[in-house]
Write a structure and sequence with these properties.
By secondary structure, the protein is α/β, with parallel strands linked by helices. The chain has twelve helices and eight strands. Helix 1 crosses helix 2.
């Protein structure tokens, strides 16, 4: 393809072809170095990719403003990295890590997030111009790896989506769109920017909530810790049902095999337990009766393999019976455990018969 380049532009294009192998290696090295640094700091991103500007793209740039560039070194985005994060705060994390591992050209770096225009949302990326330090690569045969600049564009996932949609619709094309459509685009951009900010705010709120819950757990104030998926999962890490399980297993010298207890969260909530303190009291107040019920179930059997849900399962049965749930209450618990099984009522009747042979402690 023949480009409309002047003599200076042709010279720059010649330099591009001479350096192409260096640009490709530079892109790979920079991308790998940034990926490793992000992983080391446990920073999750949705995208980290790189590209070397194609010949036709560079030619178009040189046709428009080739006189601006004294040499190809002045074209700082021939090698480009793009990092897309989940949250806006993570853009700053990525930027901080990039500035630590690369040599920065602060003069040519741009924070487009400071534009503060309603129609700029999809373009609010942070652009850093960098070079590879010798701590990353020091190749005497390719010294230009440390001399050539590359660009890192950092933005959030919503900014990236908007930019893609914006480009796809041709909103920023040379054809002037009607004012009513322009207004709709700007309104949507504003809404997405608010959503972006709210996701970051909500993450901060949830992070602080987790810290508070962990502090309460550590201090033993379990009555102040709401029973939910996250707190119950952390509670299970302390193996609160292990002692009861071992007592029950000893009835038949049975082996315990691990299973997840997370499905019991729904059952505990339906029984009216609202905090980890409630779960703790369930164990403290009803373990002896749960053990007695297990003896009634297992004493006349030779079962020698039991799942680790045996203790919690019997705690739930005992809780229902001691709170007046009776046959229907047992059946409801079994339905939560086993689904809509026709044998649930039969099992509930059997449990009730076994429980009637036991004198439960008072509530």
């Amino acid at each position: 393809m023949k480009y409309q380049l002047d003599q200076h532009g042709e010279m720059l294009m010649g330099q591009y072809h001479e350096r192409l192998s260096v640009y490709k290696r530079l892109a790979q090295l920079a991308s790998t170095a940034l990926r490793q640094a992000l992983d080391a700091q446990h920073v999750q991103v949705t995208t980290l990719d790189y590209r070397v500007k194609k010949e036709d793209s560079l030619a178009g740039k040189l046709e428009l403003k080739g006189a601006k560039y004294h040499s190809l070194d002045d074209v700082t985005d021939i090698v480009g990295l793009r990092v897309v994060t989940f949250y806006s705060a993570d853009v700053d994390k990525v930027a901080a890590i990039a500035s630590e591992i690369f040599d920065m050209d602060w003069k040519n770096s741009v924070d487009k997030r400071k534009l503060h225009r309603l129609d700029s949302f999809g373009y609010n990326s942070l652009h850093y111009i960098c070079r590879l330090p010798k701590s990353i690569v020091d190749d005497p045969e390719m010294p230009m790896l440390n001399q050539l600049s590359f660009e890192i564009q950092m933005r959030t996932a919503l900014q990236h989506v908007w930019s893609t949609l914006d480009h796809d619709t041709g909103y920023k094309s040379e054809v002037k769109i009607p004012r009513e459509y322009e207004r709709q685009f700007n309104r949507l951009a504003g809404m997405l920017e608010l959503i972006d900010e709210e996701f970051s705010r909500l993450r901060n709120v949830l992070t602080e909530y987790r810290r508070q819950m962990l502090a309460l757990e550590a201090s033993g104030q379990l009555d102040e810790v709401t029973l939910n998926a996250e707190t119950f999962r952390r509670y299970l890490e302390m193996h609160p049902f292990a002692r009861l399980n071992q007592r029950i297993a000893a009835i038949n010298q049975a082996e315990l095999y691990p299973v997840t207890l997370m499905p019991f969260l729904r059952i505990l909530r339906k029984l009216g337990l609202e905090t980890l303190g409630d779960v703790n009291r369930l164990i403290e107040e009803h373990s002896d009766d749960a053990y007695r019920l297990a003896v009634a179930q297992l004493g006349a059997t030779d079962l020698d393999i039991l799942s680790e849900n045996i203790g919690l399962q019997n705690l739930c049965y005992v809780y229902v019976l001691k709170h007046g749930g009776g046959l229907n209450g047992l059946c409801q618990v079994l339905e939560e455990m086993r689904g809509d099984d026709p044998d649930n009522m039969t099992l509930a009747k059997k449990l009730l018969e076994q429980a009637q042979t036991i004198t439960f402690t008072s509530i």
